[in-house]
Amino acid sequence: xxxxxxxxxxxxxxxxxxxxxxxxxxxxxxxxxxxxxxxxxxxxxxxxxxxxxxxxxxxxxxxxxxxxxxxxxxxxxxxxxxxxxxxxxxxxxxxxxxxxxxxxxxxxxxxxxxxxxxxxxxxxxxxxxxxxxxxxxxxxxxxxxxxxxxxxxxxxxxxxxxxx
Length: 164
Known about the structure:
By secondary structure, the protein is α+β, with helices and mostly antiparallel strands. The chain has three helices and nine strands.
């Protein structure tokens, strides 16, 4: 980080992704959603995607990728890493967060478990790509607040479990 006054702060909404340089901090809040961070330790670049659902239930008429879905959010990040940055995703530290059970009493009676499905999808996709997860904080009850400082690769996490 060159000058603390030069920091760009980005708040990532569900379905969004952002990739930038060392003067960037990315924040988000996760419930059942999952965020994946990518950080290049030598170039001090990185990004985060924040997805809501594992994948689309049915095909879309649009050929445009939608970051609300895990497989498509990861494709958007990989496009940025390969094409815009000209780097190899295997060079990045990858961290995965989220997938909390926001309504545990409701899920005892249903098969929804969206957080659990999001976590499973993220880990399977990364494994299929032979990408190593260097850290994670997944599942459980409640929500998480995340801060990703690209200048040093640190991800700060606050987990607020529910009492249900």
